[in-house]
Amino acid sequence: MAGRPDAVISGKTTNGVICGAKNVQLLIPSLKSIFGAGAPLKCASGGNALKHTCRRPRERGRLAGCLVLVASGICHCVCAAQPLDAQLPPGGNFDLSHWKLTMPDANATEVPAEELDAGFTNAVFFYTSSDGAMTFWTPVTGGTSSEGVYPRSELRELLDPDNENQNWSGYGTNVLTAQCRVTRIPSSKMVIIGQIHTFTGNALPLVKLQFNTEWVEALVKNRPNAPAETAYLFGNIGLSNLISYQIRLEDGLLSINVNGSNRTVNVFQADPAWANQAFFFKAGCYCQDNSGPSAEGARVAFYQLSVEHVGRFVPDPVVVLTNLTSTIGGQVRFTVLGEGPGNYFVQSSTNLREWRYFLVTNSLEGQFTVVDPVGPGQRFYRGGRLGETILWDESTDGSGNFGFTLFGPGPGNYFIQSSTDLVQWTHRLFTNSSTGFFEFKETMSADGAKFYRGGSF
Q1: Single pTM value for the model
Q2: Was domain 38-310 assigned CATH 3.50.50.60?
């Protein structure tokens, strides 16, 4: 009975961001079905395929990518690389149906998978070059996301294009294979061309594959909640030379291969906390410089990009609602049984379509009782463990001080921002929380309605 809403604004379900004075912005992407359309995947070992998105090329020159999730058995899919066509957009040569693009324009615009697959191109930041390569350009003066420091023209993997919450675990086999050339670098001499990024907790990258001066190095995070990392060098490759790389995470064993040179580290042994993380791949041009003239930047051209997953996806935590009772007066009482300490939510609905938050709370034992003094009419309930950040329980005291509680997915670093127009955002707080929740208060100014958002970093 666990579930997540599309977005909840002050207790009302909506698909957009509509905030009035002193309302709190709460964004939680919906949980979509993990099953995808397409021909069934045949597995030599008899395994059952949950998702197969290795699509056949719709036109000549398309480089099809692979994306496979299986419930059991070992499956693999081989997609033949065909010649790249310089007349096609990137989505015509590469299967981008399970990626989104972040561009380094002033707004750090995100381009969804549907638009990429339909042939999106940008003459400056994302285009097909004369040799057919999918080319990313990032100027040092480019725009960044609200949490970012450096600009990027970079793809982010999406198992489900409609749900960024659906990611993969470190179990099973997860492989990113690519060929590219770094043709330009900024004055810092550094650009990241591939990543395994975490989704949960502090959402730090497990590995960043970086071109540094003329070398390629893999920066591997030692722990999921700490910045320390270990560098693995792959030799002097040089600017504009072909880089063939593969990043593989298989049952906790991280393997990085660059032009035939291989490095491995068992991240589950290095820190067992990695086993509890959810991951996604990134590839493109993440410029590690943010100062200089607009003509300075990084350019990376890709000739191959494919992804394969064999094994487990990351399910939502199992939460059970039990011991349901009701009184003659209409009061409903039930117990929520979770998977241990953490932040939980309960929602209610009268029609199974529109859901509102009834309760967001932290539980030390993963078990708590819910009481709802409902009126006449049927009521439905669902609950779950928080996988995102929620701003909850807003209030204003007699002096005009506004406050609320931030609930996150667990211990880590969090931020809060405010805005008067939903366009320009100002940082209000950076903090570390050992529990994943804390209270925030501030004195309301006279500049009208104010909006808030929060997240982890």
Answers
A1: 0.59
A2: no
